[in-house]
Hints:
Blueprint: E1 5-10, H1 16-25, E2 31-38, H2 44-51, E3 56-58, H3 61-66, H4 69-76, E4 81-84, H5 93-98, E5 103-107, H6 121-131, E6 135-142, E7 152-159, H7 166-190
Parallel strand pairs: 1-2, 1-4, 2-3, 4-5
Antiparallel strand pairs: 5-6, 6-7
Helix pairs in contact: 1-7, 6-7
The structure holds 5-O-phosphono-beta-D-ribofuranosylamine (GRF).
5-O-phosphono-beta-D-ribofuranosylamine is lined by residues 11, 13-17, 85-86, 106, 108, 120-121, 173, 177.
Amino acid sequence: MSTQSRIAIFASGSGSNAEEIFKYFQGHASIEVVLLLSNNPEAYALERAKKFHIPTLVFNRKQWRESEIVLEWLKEKEITHVVLAGFLWLVPVYLIRAFPGKIINIHPALLPKFGGKGMYGMKVHEAVKASGDTETGITIHEVNEQYDEGKILHQSKCVVTPNDSPNDIAQKIHQLEYVHYPRIIEQWIKSNPF
Ligand code: GRF
């Protein structure tokens, strides 16, 4: 058994958050990113991982829902912590039970607002814009068996002006994510290492 904490990142799309996490933990004394997994063979996140020499694995819906192959892969790589970074599929119960308190997610709004099924990516920022809210932000939370109800570890806010388009909001959110997600992951792992 390794004495390092070993992260697997799940990402479905661009993977800009995943890349910030790769950079942050490069050369880290006790935490290593060892795997990037995706449900989407076209995800740019896979290219980003390759640039950082991080092994990648892709799975399909049947493997995810009807087998425990992904869990087998995580065990083979001795993964201790799972980080969701723009990952769009619901995490099955067998995986949550295998990593109790060891799965973290980032949501691009201030939960419990603008959360739940169907609320991801630009849909969240469009809903924020349509609501007329004058602020939004990010929520970093543990993943448990109740969708979007895991313990909140961190929230930070940004202003939404009347002129902001959903795209402008997305950019502000990404900046907050890049600043906070890697450091909150580090704190969370250090307080809960293996
Ligand atoms: C991020 O805003 C994340 O909060 C959300 O999806 C987006 C993913 O962006 N869940 P990227 O793939 O990390 O660029």
